[in-house]
Amino acid sequence: MIAMQYSLVLPADYDMAIIERRIAGRGHATDGFPGLGFKAYLHARKGDGRAAPDNLYAPFYLWRSTAGMNDFLCGPGFVALTQSFGWPAVSTWSVWHADMKPDVAGARHALRETVAIAPHADLAALRRAEDERSRDMLAHPEVLASVAGFDPGQWNLVRFQLWRTLPEVGPEAAPEGQVRVYGVGHVSAARAPAQTR
């Protein structure tokens, strides 16, 4: 499995209701997309008090295989996005753990944390710890999906959850933009739950 996200930074005075209407009108287009675990249509408003320094449209994907990801990126949906908003950098992470609950479409918020991996870290131990952490997160009654993965190109890991309610981000949260809280406008899910162990 592979996790993927691109983030479009929109002008400070951009009417984010446009993004919310776009999600409401087009989000269903990826429902049941081949190879998709889920796609969370994420957005954030600048200064809304949820760790959002910018207006953002930043969908997060969980792919069951690179074939589905490639079909999407080479397809008309991504072309339409680039024609409307420009050519985004696409981040990917190899998935160590991913699971979601049957009612994942009920998610209204998302939390994504990226953490640098120290040089010469014990990756096997880190993988076990992140797998366990991700499983523990999914046990929370308000968490509907949990993903843990890593990017050996940038040497960072991602922790991502979909929440039914707004997660609390306390002062102990990682600094410098490593933690982002988003609103969720729609979740396109696979026909059967995605899961990796």
Structure report:
The chain is of the alpha+beta class. It has one domain: Alpha-Beta Plaits, CATH 3.30.70.100. A hairpin with a 4-residue loop joins β8 and β9. The relative contact order is 0.25. The model has no long low-confidence stretch (mean pLDDT 90).
Number of domains: 1
β-sheet strand percentage: 35-45%
CATH overall fold name: Alpha-Beta Plaits
Helix percent band? 10-25%
Q: What oligomeric assembly is this protein in? A: single chain
The CATH architecture term is: 2-Layer Sandwich
Number of strands: 11
* Main β sheet profile: 8 strands, antiparallel, barrel
What is the alpha-carbon Rg in Å? Answer: 16 Å
What is the CATH class designation?
Answer: Alpha Beta
Mean pLDDT: 90
**pLDDT < 50 stretches:** none
Tell me the number of helical segments per DSSP (H or I, 4 or more residues long).
Answer: 4
Order of helices and strands: EEHEEEHHEEHEEEE
* Dominant shape: globular
Numbering strands along the chain, what is their spatial order in the largest sheet? 1-5-3-10-7-9-8-6
Give the end-to-end Cα distance, rounded to a whole number of Å.
10 Å
| Structural class by SSE content | alpha+beta
